[in-house]
Design goal:
about 75% helix, 5 helices
Length: about 80
């Protein structure tokens, strides 16, 4: 997939992959990150990113699209 990071390609391959050993392995890895207990570990990061977004929006509200794009893209990179 041109233009997507390697991790994104892996996510897409799970959605489109045929059932088999690779599918089971990728599903197991993905499932670990979405358990309720795992999600709570991301809470401080989400709160920090929300504060940064709010501060940027207050500083330059006319740039709201850029702020939202940066915020949306920065969380997955930091979480990885």
């Amino acid at each position: 997939m041109r233009g997507f990071p390697t991790r994104m390609e892996s996510s897409w391959s799970l959605l489109l992959a045929a059932y088999g050993d690779l599918w089971r392995l990728e599903r197991k890895i993905a499932e670990r990150g979405f358990r309720p207990a795992s999600l709570t570990t991301f809470r401080p990061l989400q709160e920090t990113r929300a504060r940064v977004l709010a501060a940027r929006l207050l500083e330059s509200p006319q740039e709201w699209v850029a702020h939202l794009e940066l915020s949306a893209l920065s969380f997955p990179v930091r979480a990885a």
